[in-house]
Amino acid sequence: MNITASMVKELREMTGAGMMDCKKALSETGGDMDKAVEFLREKGLAAAEKKAGRIAAEGVIDTNVSEDGKVASIVEVNSETDFVAKNDKFKEYVAAVAAQAAKTNASNIDEFLEEKWELDPTKTVKEELSSMIAIIGENMNIRRFEKLVSENGFITSYIHGGGRIGILVELESDVVNEEVKEAGKNIAMQIAAMSPKYISRNDVAEDFIAHEKEIIKAQIKNDPANASKPENIIEKMIEGRLNKELKEICLLDQVYVKDGDMNVAKYLESVSKQVGTTITVKHFVRFETGEGLEKKTEDFAAEVAKQMGL
Question: Can you give the pTM of this predicted structure?
Answer without folding.
Answer: 0.76
